[in-house]
Design a protein that fits this description.
Two copies of one chain form a homodimer. By secondary structure, chain A is α+β, with helices and mostly antiparallel strands. Chain A contains eight helices and 15 strands.
């Protein structure tokens, strides 16, 4: 169908957190009875997070993020359970393990606690599994940072199998945050604009990025962020692709923007440097053969993918 | 430049809240001194919101949303001021007027309080002005619903000229929410899938829509929402356009999806009906000449625009 001609593959291969095979089966979220049965179902699988860190089973050579009931019970009583969805007919839950258990779990030889970034960077599991671990991590951090009602200050409680919080005092409902972030290359002729934050490893350059604000279109946010960080003006904007990014709970929206100026003035609060890169240089950076030793973000990051789209023209 | 060939005009003409001419000038947000001077500047302009409703000056025939200092002072002491940005060199502020003033303001013959939807529907002001009133409305509602720290329950305070809140007790920073929503047509051959919510006026059909969840790509969210509401399966997804929607603070992300099934089973909790519409029927609906009296959302809504893209092929 012509609306869908010329679309790139979805999801973009290698993009971290972007491929979920799980059916979220939201209709089950409201049924306490269904939940009870599913939690008692011997086939059910559990993803465990402790102090924002995934807990993995380790048999000396391979890692397994999916606990069965018995294995999950040995991690200690969870702060809460989150119904993640169905893998075929198999219910998957997230379990938030109390922070006090962290040292005990770390001491166990049959477990490894590996931070989310490393899991994604190393591609330790199937993309769908990594994406679901990321969802559990993002959701539990949201719960931890939203134990109180922002409307009245009373303690709130998890509801809908972990997908919202309710305040009994003022009856407010609170839903998980998903914070949209624009991430983009400004393009001028055959060159693109990249910058480096003061926190980057040496030689690393990447796309510019920033949180969207209320009242903006995606295209306005792209133009504002590029202007704020480098004083470069831009015109038309093209959406490329999006990536969930569970640090803590962003939606990265990847774009290209048509630059209408050339002279860079960086905002030193945001960037250590920004400059124009030729297509050939970006190709070298992606191939890890840049003569100046410049490097790109990893393949699993949407920044890498945006650079690739530019490099391939 | 070929990356930007064949892009539609940006922003889409007639799309409400999507055109802001204001420079947000975020660099001034941290300077109390700059703010004080700007608030005292006789050229500065003020957008006033009371109980989530824009306050407009009215001279008997025309409306004006931009108060000068004297006019603003006569509205009563604001709960807070929000630095909205610069129109050229002219600072614009939002003022949140206490709810207790509502009846007094409503009684004044030199003012009209008109709800945000009506202002946008009637296109009362230039698009950039409507967009900025929408931003002020969304921001103040966010402040009202976030007076307390979600992390510790203590009262929080506005900071950065209204662009964040800080909790003195636990030192948490809280930023305004922008909630991404996917809104889309599933397309099968020459037909598209539209539904009606129980709350719609009679005969009204529109795109399906729903809030994104943590861990989803835009494309995954589109497929999940269509499946949940109608049981229709979809494949490829194409991004079209986005619209800020200040009710309360959403980012509507407009898409088309390629349907891979035909038989509709609606979720009665979400929809009163859903059905397939031919291109010709959608054209009639948009032209307000549908023989069955079916109608579309207004031109200022992205749903109307998505229907138009489909109708025009």
């Amino acid at each position: 169908m012509r609306f869908f001609d010329q679309l790139p593959p979805q999801p973009t291969p290698e993009l971290g957190f972007a491929t979920s095979g799980l059916n979220r089966a939201a209709l089950h979220r409201e049924s306490m009875e269904w939940q009870r049965e599913a939690l008692a179902n011997p086939a059910s699988r559990f993803i465990a997070i402790c102090k924002d860190t995934p807990v993995l089973q380790f048999d000396g050579s391979t890692f397994d993020p999916l606990f069965d009931r018995q294995g999950a019970a040995r991690l200690g009583d969870p702060v809460q359970a989150l119904f993640l969805g169905l893998d075929g007919n198999v219910p998957w839950f997230g379990l938030n393990i109390p922070a006090e258990q962290f040292d005990d779990l770390k001491a166990r030889s049959d477990l490894k606690l590996i931070d989310m970034r490393s899991i994604a960077m190393q591609g330790l599991f199937q993309p769908g599994v990594i994406s679901t671990i990321g969802t559990a991590k993002a959701m539990f951090l949201w719960h931890q940072r939203h134990r109180f009602c922002s409307n009245c200050g009373a303690a709130s409680a998890s509801a809908s199998s972990g997908w919202k919080r309710i305040c009994e005092a003022c009856k407010s409902e609170h839903f998980p945050r998903t914070d949209p972030v624009v991430i983009m290359l400004a393009i001028h002729g055959d060159e693109c604009l990249m910058g480096r934050s003061p926190a980057f490893p040496e030689g690393r350059y990447s796309c510019l990025a920033g949180f969207m604000e209320p009242g903006e279109t995606i295209e306005d946010a792209v133009r504002r962020e590029i202007l704020e960080e480098t004083s470069i003006t831009t015109g038309r904007v093209r959406y490329l692709d999006a990536q969930p990014w569970p640090f803590p709970s962003s939606l990265m929206i990847g774009c290209l923007a048509e630059a209408t100026s050339r002279i860079i003035t960086i905002d030193p609060a945001e960037l250590a440097d920004a400059r124009w890169f030729s297509r050939e240089e970006v190709r070298q950076i992606l191939a890890e053969s840049h003569p100046g030793g410049m490097t790109a973000p990893p393949r699993m990051a949407i920044a890498h993918h945006i650079m690739q789209v530019f490099a391939e023209g």
